[in-house]
Design brief:
Length: 211
């Protein structure tokens, strides 16, 4: 998927938010990779919660080695809590991953049904699974389903870029929601530009120079 700067969504964002417009002009079009497998995506998000990229990648590689790279519910359920602990997961996270795999394998969570549901119902069903919080559910909406109006204020990377762009040291969630209301109904696209500033190695100084 390519987000073009001359698309109606991006033109809407540029018109509504001049600071974001400066970032969009500096970055240009965005090519977004697609994640096709919902189970493996959410499973990896559970592994990555509250970890550095380096630590998360290390644990993920160890688990992949145990299951032959096959991130499916059945493969995960062949592992024990001790196996996952040996890979570097905490006891709670091991329980969360096994619980998520069991919910999908037993049909308590139907991942094939989710794409046909509205965002709020998807959030409700995913967060009903122990260990799957709002952050994980929003990452699924944003990167798997590519929903257009997701505001991931729970995400540290998004918030870092947001603070730099709007000159806020420690904004509350209410402040972020209020400030980003102008992005609707294309909050996800704005968020992708926030992420891309970091992907490109832009610093606070780089962003301030754009304004």
């Amino acid at each position: 998927m390519i987000i073009s700067t001359d698309s109606p969504a991006v033109l809407h964002l540029k018109k509504k938010d001049k600071r974001l417009a400066a970032v969009i002009d500096a970055i240009g079009d965005i090519e977004c990779g697609e994640h096709l497998d919902a189970f493996s995506f959410i499973a990896k998000e559970i592994v990555e919660q509250m970890l550095s990229i380096k630590a998360a990648n290390c644990i993920r590689r160890r688990i992949a080695g145990m299951i032959g790279g096959e991130f499916t519910p059945e493969a995960i359920l062949r592992l024990t809590q001790d196996d996952l602990r040996a890979a570097g997961m905490s006891r709670n996270k091991a329980d969360y991953l096994l619980g998520f795999a069991a919910a999908v394998a037993e049909g308590r969570l139907d991942l094939e049904e989710l794409p046909g549901l509205p965002d709020d119902e998807i959030m409700k069903r995913l967060t009903a699974i122990r260990g799957v919080g709002s952050w994980t559910a929003k990452m699924y909406l944003l990167f798997i389903l590519q929903r257009e109006d997701v505001l991931p204020f729970e995400d540290g990377a998004f918030m870092q870029s947001f603070r730099w762009l709007y000159g806020m040291k420690n904004p509350s969630r209410e402040t972020v929601i209020k400030r980003c209301k102008k992005w609707k109904p294309y909050s996800s696209i704005a968020a992708r530009y926030m992420y891309r500033t970091l992907d490109m190695g832009m610093t606070k100084a780089d962003i301030l120079e754009l304004l």
